[in-house]
Specification:
This protein is mainly alpha-helical. Helices cover 70% and strands 0% of the residues. α1 packs parallel to α2 and α2 packs antiparallel against α3. This is 1546_t:CDS:1.
Length: 56
């Protein structure tokens, strides 16, 4: 939930469309969200890597 909240705040902070995830696989869902957010707001690689480590 913490990661989802961070992604939500990141999307809102960059005035992007909110990325909604509808999946039973939390890790897969977060991974997809990270990729989408990376495309939309271009998160720095180091930040993306950190979030990925937290998820994994």
């Amino acid at each position: 939930e913490i990661i989802l909240e961070l992604l939500y705040k990141a999307a809102i902070g960059h005035q992007c469309h909110l990325i909604l995830i509808n999946t039973n696989d939390l890790h897969a869902g977060l991974g997809s969200a990270l990729l989408l957010v990376k495309e939309v707001i271009d998160i720095p690689i180091d930040v993306l890597g950190h979030l990925t480590e937290v998820i994994g």
